[in-house]
Write a structure and sequence with these properties.
With about 150 residues, chain A is of the alpha/beta class. Chain A is built from four helices and seven strands; from the N terminus they run ααββαβαββββ. In chain A, the strands form two sheets. Chain A has a four-stranded mixed beta sheet. Chain A is elongated and about 55 Å long. Helix content of chain B is about 65%, strand content about 0%. Chain B is built from ten helices and no strands. Chain B has about 260 residues and is mostly helical. The chains are: A alpha/beta (about 150), B mainly alpha (about 260). The interface between A and B is medium-sized, with 21 and 26 residues.
Chain lengths: ~150, ~260
């Protein structure tokens, strides 16, 4: 089989969903840092979101499964810690999908811009931490619904 | 790298990793028991970050040690005298206020320390610090907020926070004690002299505790022996008993 191009592999990876927030892909999340061929070995460089995130091992497994299904048999995953993952790397498509899913996307100001349900902007923080390491809990004072906010780091 | 430096680096990495391991385990003891759901989640997330950081520190320690061990081997198969964490993090949880006071006193040191380590001459140390410091910024924000909320809260919460501070303050000094290991790390440009962190720490902690209407005890007496491994409190043994029993009872088991 002809060796698939790096661009093609990026597209495949853009179809691998994040295990905890399946509306966005691993590419949307910004954790795939590099895809490169080293002779006939495909090297995918991945950075963790949070150092203790339990999804990390599932993510690695999902990448391997997806690429092996496409016929890649010589594959290596490399962990890269630096530069540390930042929510600046979330794709624009990913940010839109997060909000549609009910998770307010990260903002440089450090809090959500609006309620992902009603669009209200009277918001209060409930906790710096949420249902996964990457999220915080907020509440909308207009519709009174609590919601997840994707923390900006 | 010279042999003596390698031994010192190993000790330094064990100190970093054992701090996060022991505190991470302590905090995880709250899982399912915290006063409200949000706090339960926050504590579990903090513990998770700390355990994640432990994997990085102890993973690197095992690599430097060069005996083919893993981070898990170091976490689960060392006995109490092999641990190099400061005594503060092995102190029991007490009530919720004491847990958060301990967290704040550690987070403040941790954030300052990691800020220095980002500029470490050792690339792996710098990378771990860069990653961890982002997480610890959140820990500090939350523990400081909670210390202020409870300290400047009701009479009951204020008294409990003052009691927690009085109890834990004698364990603060150990974080700033230097020894030959630290000297070797300073010489190699890997870490800073612990004593040099004190001024920044006192400023940060002083500001938050003052906002919390709490009084810092005057005595600078410091219990020590944790980070050198000379003498831990009896609490650590009990903690390890819970933490280590499974891999010790079923050696090599996997799930």
């Amino acid at each position: 089989m002809a060796r698939p191009s790096v661009g093609e592999i990026w597209q495949w990876l853009d179809h691998v969903p994040d295990p905890e927030i399946p509306v966005i892909s691993l590419v949307d999340l910004g954790i795939i840092r590099d895809v490169a061929w080293e002779d006939d070995l495909l090297v995918v460089t991945v950075t963790p979101t949070y150092s203790g995130c339990p999804a990390t091992s599932v993510i690695n497994l999902d990448i391997q499964t997806a690429l092996r299904e496409k016929g890649i048999d010589r594959l290596e995953l490399r962990r890269q810690l630096s530069p540390a993952w930042t929510t600046d790397w979330l794709s624009d498509k990913g940010r839109v999908r997060l909000e549609e899913f009910g998770i307010a996307p990260p903002q440089p100001a450090g809090g959500p811009e609006r309620c992902p349900r009603c669009g209200g902007n009277h918001l209060e923080k409930l906790s710096q931490f949420g249902s996964t390491p990457c999220k915080a809990q907020w509440r909308c004072c207009d519709c009174l619904e609590p919601f997840d906010y994707f923390k900006c780091i | 790298m010279a042999e003596v430096d390698k031994q010192a680096l190993l000790q330094f990495l064990l100190r970093m990793g054992d701090n996060t391991l022991v505190l991470g385990h302590r905090v995880s003891e709250w899982c399912g028991h915290a006063p409200v759901l949000e706090e339960d989640i926050a504590l579990a997330n903090t513990a998770l970050d700390l355990i994640g950081q432990t994997q990085l520190w102890l993973g690197y320690a095992a690599e430097i040690e060069g005996e083919g061990k893993s981070a898990d081997d170091l976490a689960f198969l060392r006995d109490v005298w092999g641990f190099r964490n400061v005594l503060l993090v092995e102190m029991p949880n007490g009530d919720f206020g004491q847990t958060l006071m301990r967290q704040f006193l550690f987070d403040a040191w941790h954030s300052i320390m990691l800020g220095r380590l980002i500029r470490s001459s050792d690339r792996t140390v710098a990378e771990i610090a860069e990653k961890a410091s982002k997480e610890v910024a959140y820990h500090l924000e939350r523990s400081a907020d909670t210390v202020v909320g409870l300290g400047d809260g009701t009479e009951e919460s204020h008294n409990r926070m003052q009691a927690a501070l009085n109890y834990l303050w004698p364990y603060v000094g150990e974080m700033f004690e230097g020894d030959a290991v630290d000297e070797a790390m300073v010489t190699a440009g890997i870490s800073s002299d612990p004593g040099q962190l004190r001024e920044e720490y006192d400023t940060l902690v002083g500001r938050v505790l003052s906002e919390a209407t709490l009084t810092i005890p005057e005595s600078r007496f410091a219990h020590k022996g944790g980070r050198t491994g000379q003498m831990h409190t009896e609490h650590l043994g009990h903690l390890l008993c819970t933490m280590q029993w499974l891999p010790r009872a079923y050696p090599g088991c996997r799930w």
